[in-house]
Write a structure and sequence with these properties.
There is one protein chain. Helices cover 4% and strands 47% of the residues. By secondary structure, the chain is mainly beta. The chain folds into two domains: 147 residues, TM1070-like (Hypothetical Protein Tm1070, Chain: A); 112 residues, Hypothetical Protein Tm1070, Chain: A (Sandwich), CATH 2.60.290.11. The chain is globular, with a radius of gyration of 19 Å. The N terminus is likely disordered.
């Protein structure tokens, strides 16, 4: 059911996703403590491949853009292990395909680059899950989840991309309902320099007087900037870069009740005309 909802949301919100020859899908892995350190949890991405056609279609892993730069498939990966076939009218998790063993990723954020036979649809989501004790499975209690954008092309160097959807504002005091209102909002942006030279990024809040943020990324590097424009009434972000790039934003709202999970939302970007 979760996979069906994810693919439906991705198809409706991003109708071009996965329908070209390339797909750039976000990846994230981060451990954290909840409830004052008593609960181990993890942010982790899931990727799904859907074939709605009447014939089997192939998918191939090309490499990853990570925190240390672009990485090719693991040495020893062959065309047989680095490519998979998705049967007609079926959906598969990328983690369940043999090519997942060729993917090079680790803690932090990244983008994975896939080559798709035309007709395949790729969806991505990020989950916050509470981890069990020793010997437990990763598929444990789901605390929060949100779809992630999958892009079919890089944003051109020098272009300006605008976030889609309204970013939640920082919370204001609510004396009438202090237990149900959020007490903090953290805004993050994930950036990829897909060029072959250093890139200078500018992140500008569209609805705030705060000055732009500037950051430089190495070729092929992906980073996440956390808690940007704190306490600013930011509803949208503009991102530009001097090299081909990609970006997405995320917002996390937390509550005074430690037993209540954080709410989480993500925002894709599109290039302005």
């Amino acid at each position: 059911m979760k996979m069906l909802h994810l693919l439906t949301a991705i198809t409706l919100l991003l109708p071009a996703v996965g329908r070209a020859d390339d797909a750039f899908a976000p990846f994230a892995l981060a451990h954290l403590k909840l409830d004052g350190g008593s609960v181990d949890a993890v942010w982790y991405t899931s990727h799904y491949v859907h074939n709605p056609t009447d014939r089997p279609l192939s998918i191939r892993y090309l490499g990853a853009y990570t925190g240390i730069g672009a990485l090719p498939p693991y040495p020893g990966c062959t065309s047989e292990t680095n490519e998979a076939t998705v049967p007609a009218h079926s959906s598969l998790r990328l983690d369940d395909l043999p090519l997942s063993f060729c993917i090079r990723w680790g803690p932090g954020v990244a983008f994975i680059h896939l080559s798709l036979e035309r007709g395949l649809v790729v969806g991505s989501a990020i989950d916050l899950r509470a981890l069990p004790g020793c010997g437990g499975s990763w598929d444990q209690r789901l605390l929060a989840s949100a779809p992630l954008p999958v892009y079919t092309a890089l944003f051109p160097a020098g272009s300006v991309a605008l976030s889609r959807g309204a970013i939640p504002l920082p919370p204001e005091p609510t004396p009438c309902a202090p237990d149900i209102a959020p007490v903090a909002r953290r805004l993050n942006v994930t950036l990829l320099n897909a060029g072959d030279a250093d890139a200078v990024f500018a992140i500008t809040p569209q609805t705030s007087a705060a000055p732009p943020l500037e950051v430089s990324l190495r070729p092929g590097q992906t980073i996440q900037l956390n808690d940007i424009f704190a306490d600013q009434p930011v509803r949208a972000l503009l991102v530009s870069a001097s090299q081909p790039f990609l970006a997405y934003a995320s917002a996390i709202s937390t509550y005074s009740d430690p037993a209540r999970p954080a709410s989480f939302s993500t925002f894709s970007f599109e290039v302005l005309p």
